[in-house]
UniProtKB/TrEMBL annotation:
This is Cthe-2314-like HEPN domain-containing protein. It comes from the Bacteria.
Amino acid sequence: MSKYSEWGPTELFGLIDNPIANIHSMLEIDAMYLQTAITNLEVAKEQKTQIELAVHDLTNHHDVKLLEAYDWGDEIDLIDGSDLPGYINAIERLEEAYSNYLQSLATVHIFCALSLEAHINQQAMKLLVGRMRNEFDRFSLEAKWLTLPVLLGHESYDAGAEPFQGFSKLVKVRNTLVHFKSSSDKWQRSIKPAEKASFGLSLEEAQSSVDTAKRMLLQLSDLLVVDKPLWLTAESRRFFQINVTSVEGCKTPVAEG
């Protein structure tokens, strides 16, 4: 993201029409992926409130008290659809609330991993050449992050410490979600679905993935002794890096962004 990223249409169109300027743009897809994760984390926080409201409605439904009074347990006869319709509707509202929430949490993990994968590949394209670059493409994601600093003559991450340990966990969670194996869980009268701890589908673990992604990106800049990505701290939602250079004969050079 350059200083031109914050320009409006008037400034940018002025440059485009200016015959003395060369303009090049590049999509910063790593930034776009990370912002997608951050946005979904905020959405998940709001959806958690909707779950709490749905749980409250369900636990206070008069049919729940009827179930308890007759000790019908978890078995509900749905053959003709006439038994406890209000209770079933309340369950469906809770199911919808949970579905939206889990979707947002899964998106956080997957796009954090995508951002880190895109970023390390972009850095390798810029900094490696020839056979070294080709060999690098064959590495696993974790190996790429450990190896790139070493290939460039720098120290690398401590694989046994944070943030790399959190990164390894993020990769495992992403793989579990992407290669998901479905299972059926019995609905408990405790209202909420069975916990999916191994899937990372909780606010705490989603927040951890975002924090880990940011720390990995910042530490890579330190290890490689390069500038930190501006989009890590900027609040802009524009994901194009705009570089502007002057052409021969220009009396007033245009700075590169």
